[in-house]
Amino acid sequence: MNEATDDATDHAEIGRKLFAGEAGFIWATASLGGLPPMEGLEIAFAGRSNVGKSSLVNALTGRKALARTSNTPGRTQELNFFRIGPEDGAPRRLTLVDMPGYGYAAVGKEKVAAWTDLIHAYLRGRANLARVYVLIDARHGIKPIDAGVLDLLDKAAVSYQIVLTKTDALSRAELDKRLAATAAALAKRAAAFPVILPTSSRTGEGMSELREAVARLMDERGAL
Protein backbone atom coordinates (compact mmCIF):
# COMPACT_ATOMS: atom_id res chain seq x y z
CA MET A 1 0.00 0.00 0.00
CA ASN A 2 1.25 3.44 -0.90
CA GLU A 3 0.85 5.50 2.26
CA ALA A 4 2.54 8.61 0.90
CA THR A 5 0.61 11.71 -0.07
CA ASP A 6 1.52 14.94 -1.79
CA ASP A 7 2.06 16.64 1.55
CA ALA A 8 5.71 17.44 2.24
CA THR A 9 5.27 16.66 5.93
CA ASP A 10 4.37 13.08 5.08
CA HIS A 11 7.49 12.63 2.99
CA ALA A 12 9.59 14.12 5.77
CA GLU A 13 8.20 11.62 8.27
CA ILE A 14 8.53 8.72 5.85
CA GLY A 15 12.15 9.68 5.23
CA ARG A 16 12.85 9.96 8.94
CA LYS A 17 11.41 6.51 9.64
CA LEU A 18 13.12 4.95 6.64
CA PHE A 19 16.61 6.04 7.65
CA ALA A 20 15.97 5.40 11.34
CA GLY A 21 15.15 1.77 10.52
CA GLU A 22 17.30 -1.11 9.38
CA ALA A 23 20.48 -0.33 7.47
CA GLY A 24 23.39 -2.59 6.67
CA PHE A 25 26.25 -3.28 4.30
CA ILE A 26 25.37 -5.90 1.67
CA TRP A 27 27.93 -5.79 -1.17
CA ALA A 28 31.19 -4.31 -2.42
CA THR A 29 32.90 -4.52 -5.76
CA ALA A 30 35.80 -2.90 -7.55
CA SER A 31 34.75 -4.24 -10.95
CA LEU A 32 31.69 -3.86 -13.14
CA GLY A 33 31.40 -7.63 -13.41
CA GLY A 34 31.04 -7.91 -9.65
CA LEU A 35 27.90 -5.79 -9.36
CA PRO A 36 24.96 -7.28 -7.45
CA PRO A 37 21.69 -8.06 -9.25
CA MET A 38 19.50 -5.06 -9.99
CA GLU A 39 16.74 -5.30 -7.42
CA GLY A 40 14.50 -2.46 -6.32
CA LEU A 41 15.44 1.19 -6.30
CA GLU A 42 19.03 2.43 -6.03
CA ILE A 43 20.40 5.84 -5.18
CA ALA A 44 24.10 6.63 -5.36
CA PHE A 45 26.38 9.17 -3.70
CA ALA A 46 29.27 10.47 -5.78
CA GLY A 47 31.88 13.15 -5.23
CA ARG A 48 35.54 14.07 -5.15
CA SER A 49 37.74 12.31 -2.65
CA ASN A 50 37.55 13.93 0.76
CA VAL A 51 34.25 15.67 -0.02
CA GLY A 52 32.70 13.87 2.96
CA LYS A 53 30.65 11.09 1.32
CA SER A 54 31.10 8.47 4.02
CA SER A 55 30.47 11.01 6.77
CA LEU A 56 27.28 12.07 5.04
CA VAL A 57 26.06 8.47 4.67
CA ASN A 58 26.66 7.93 8.38
CA ALA A 59 24.90 11.15 9.32
CA LEU A 60 22.00 10.41 6.99
CA THR A 61 21.39 7.02 8.59
CA GLY A 62 22.18 8.15 12.13
CA ARG A 63 25.02 5.65 12.44
CA LYS A 64 28.61 6.27 13.35
CA ALA A 65 30.27 3.62 11.20
CA LEU A 66 27.90 2.34 8.51
CA ALA A 67 30.27 3.73 5.89
CA ARG A 68 34.00 3.85 6.53
CA THR A 69 35.48 7.27 7.07
CA SER A 70 39.10 8.30 6.93
CA ASN A 71 41.22 11.42 6.95
CA THR A 72 43.05 9.89 4.00
CA PRO A 73 41.34 10.76 0.70
CA GLY A 74 40.73 7.85 -1.65
CA ARG A 75 40.11 5.19 0.98
CA THR A 76 36.79 4.18 -0.57
CA GLN A 77 38.07 2.18 -3.53
CA GLU A 78 34.96 0.13 -4.30
CA LEU A 79 31.28 0.56 -4.96
CA ASN A 80 29.78 -0.13 -1.54
CA PHE A 81 26.11 -1.14 -1.38
CA PHE A 82 23.95 -0.64 1.71
CA ARG A 83 20.40 -1.89 2.19
CA ILE A 84 18.11 0.70 3.76
CA GLY A 85 14.89 -0.79 5.12
CA PRO A 86 13.59 -4.30 5.84
CA GLU A 87 15.23 -7.38 4.35
CA ASP A 88 11.94 -9.10 3.48
CA GLY A 89 11.38 -7.18 0.26
CA ALA A 90 8.60 -5.06 1.74
CA PRO A 91 7.97 -1.51 0.55
CA ARG A 92 10.18 1.31 1.81
CA ARG A 93 13.39 -0.46 1.03
CA LEU A 94 16.14 0.85 -1.17
CA THR A 95 19.82 0.38 -1.88
CA LEU A 96 22.26 3.18 -1.17
CA VAL A 97 25.55 3.09 -3.09
CA ASP A 98 28.66 4.81 -1.77
CA MET A 99 30.86 5.34 -4.81
CA PRO A 100 34.65 5.67 -4.93
CA GLY A 101 35.83 9.25 -4.61
CA TYR A 102 37.07 10.56 -7.91
CA GLY A 103 40.01 12.74 -8.80
CA TYR A 104 42.47 12.06 -6.01
CA ALA A 105 45.90 12.32 -7.61
CA ALA A 106 48.06 11.10 -4.72
CA VAL A 107 47.35 7.48 -5.64
CA GLY A 108 48.72 6.03 -8.86
CA LYS A 109 47.29 7.24 -12.16
CA GLU A 110 46.32 3.69 -13.08
CA LYS A 111 44.31 3.38 -9.86
CA VAL A 112 42.56 6.68 -10.52
CA ALA A 113 41.79 5.58 -14.08
CA ALA A 114 40.38 2.25 -12.86
CA TRP A 115 38.13 3.94 -10.30
CA THR A 116 36.98 6.47 -12.90
CA ASP A 117 36.17 3.75 -15.42
CA LEU A 118 34.19 1.85 -12.78
CA ILE A 119 32.20 4.95 -11.82
CA HIS A 120 31.43 5.81 -15.43
CA ALA A 121 30.43 2.26 -16.34
CA TYR A 122 28.16 1.98 -13.31
CA LEU A 123 26.44 5.31 -14.00
CA ARG A 124 25.83 4.43 -17.65
CA GLY A 125 24.57 0.91 -17.14
CA ARG A 126 22.52 0.66 -13.94
CA ALA A 127 18.89 0.62 -15.05
CA ASN A 128 17.45 0.74 -11.51
CA LEU A 129 19.53 3.77 -10.51
CA ALA A 130 16.91 6.41 -9.65
CA ARG A 131 19.19 9.32 -8.83
CA VAL A 132 22.80 10.23 -8.15
CA TYR A 133 23.45 12.68 -5.34
CA VAL A 134 26.61 14.52 -6.37
CA LEU A 135 28.41 15.92 -3.34
CA ILE A 136 30.18 19.25 -3.78
CA ASP A 137 32.34 20.84 -1.10
CA ALA A 138 30.55 24.10 -0.29
CA ARG A 139 33.89 25.80 0.35
CA HIS A 140 35.07 25.26 -3.22
CA GLY A 141 32.01 24.82 -5.45
CA ILE A 142 31.88 22.89 -8.71
CA LYS A 143 35.38 22.16 -9.97
CA PRO A 144 36.27 21.07 -13.54
CA ILE A 145 36.50 17.43 -12.46
CA ASP A 146 32.98 17.68 -10.99
CA ALA A 147 31.75 19.26 -14.21
CA GLY A 148 33.11 16.25 -16.11
CA VAL A 149 30.99 13.90 -14.01
CA LEU A 150 27.94 16.13 -14.49
CA ASP A 151 28.59 16.04 -18.26
CA LEU A 152 28.56 12.24 -18.12
CA LEU A 153 25.31 12.20 -16.16
CA ASP A 154 23.70 14.63 -18.61
CA LYS A 155 24.77 12.54 -21.60
CA ALA A 156 23.55 9.33 -19.97
CA ALA A 157 20.27 11.04 -18.92
CA VAL A 158 20.81 9.94 -15.32
CA SER A 159 18.94 12.15 -12.87
CA TYR A 160 21.21 13.84 -10.34
CA GLN A 161 20.96 16.34 -7.51
CA ILE A 162 23.68 18.49 -5.99
CA VAL A 163 24.35 18.14 -2.26
CA LEU A 164 26.64 20.80 -0.82
CA THR A 165 28.75 19.43 2.04
CA LYS A 166 30.63 21.10 4.89
CA THR A 167 28.34 24.13 4.89
CA ASP A 168 29.16 24.77 8.55
CA ALA A 169 32.49 26.17 7.33
CA LEU A 170 30.71 29.05 5.56
CA SER A 171 28.89 32.12 6.81
CA ARG A 172 25.26 32.57 5.79
CA ALA A 173 26.26 35.17 3.20
CA GLU A 174 28.98 32.90 1.79
CA LEU A 175 26.55 29.98 1.59
CA ASP A 176 23.92 32.09 -0.17
CA LYS A 177 26.55 33.12 -2.71
CA ARG A 178 27.60 29.49 -3.23
CA LEU A 179 23.99 28.37 -3.67
CA ALA A 180 23.39 31.06 -6.28
CA ALA A 181 26.56 30.20 -8.19
CA THR A 182 25.74 26.49 -8.13
CA ALA A 183 22.20 27.10 -9.33
CA ALA A 184 23.53 29.20 -12.21
CA ALA A 185 25.98 26.44 -13.18
CA LEU A 186 23.15 23.89 -13.27
CA ALA A 187 20.62 26.01 -15.13
CA LYS A 188 21.33 24.54 -18.57
CA ARG A 189 22.00 20.96 -17.46
CA ALA A 190 19.18 18.72 -18.60
CA ALA A 191 19.53 15.94 -16.03
CA ALA A 192 20.08 18.17 -12.99
CA PHE A 193 17.32 18.28 -10.37
CA PRO A 194 16.90 21.99 -9.63
CA VAL A 195 16.82 21.87 -5.81
CA ILE A 196 20.28 22.13 -4.20
CA LEU A 197 20.63 20.61 -0.74
CA PRO A 198 23.06 22.31 1.70
CA THR A 199 24.29 19.90 4.39
CA SER A 200 26.75 19.47 7.22
CA SER A 201 27.54 16.02 8.56
CA ARG A 202 29.08 17.64 11.63
CA THR A 203 26.04 19.69 12.67
CA GLY A 204 23.31 17.60 11.02
CA GLU A 205 22.15 20.51 8.89
CA GLY A 206 20.16 19.41 5.86
CA MET A 207 19.86 15.73 6.80
CA SER A 208 16.10 15.83 7.32
CA GLU A 209 15.70 17.61 3.97
CA LEU A 210 17.84 14.98 2.24
CA ARG A 211 15.85 12.16 3.83
CA GLU A 212 12.66 13.85 2.69
CA ALA A 213 14.03 14.21 -0.85
CA VAL A 214 14.82 10.50 -1.00
CA ALA A 215 11.36 9.58 0.29
CA ARG A 216 9.73 11.85 -2.29
CA LEU A 217 11.85 10.26 -5.05
CA MET A 218 10.82 6.78 -3.90
CA ASP A 219 7.18 7.86 -3.96
CA GLU A 220 7.54 9.21 -7.49
CA ARG A 221 9.09 5.91 -8.60
CA GLY A 222 6.38 3.83 -6.91
CA ALA A 223 8.77 2.40 -4.33
CA LEU A 224 6.79 3.29 -1.19
TrEMBL record:
Family, per entry: Belongs to the TRAFAC class TrmE-Era-EngA-EngB-Septin-like GTPase superfamily. EngB GTPase family.
Domain EngB-type G: 39-220
Matches recorded under PROSITE patterns: G_ENGB
Keywords: Cell cycle, Cell division, GTP-binding, Magnesium, Metal-binding, Nucleotide-binding, Septation
Keyword Ligase: no
Function: Necessary for normal cell division and for the maintenance of normal septation.
Gene: engB
Pfam families (UniProt xref): MMR_HSR1 (PF01926)
CDD domains for the chain: YihA_EngB (cd01876)
PANTHER family: ENGB-TYPE G DOMAIN-CONTAINING PROTEIN, MSS1/TRME-RELATED GTP-BINDING PROTEIN
GO CC terms in record: cytosol
Record bears the keyword Metal-binding: yes
Single GO term (MF): GTP binding
Name this polypeptide is given: Probable GTP-binding protein EngB
Cofactor: Mg(2+)
Any one GO biological process: division septum assembly
Gene source species: Chelatococcus caeni
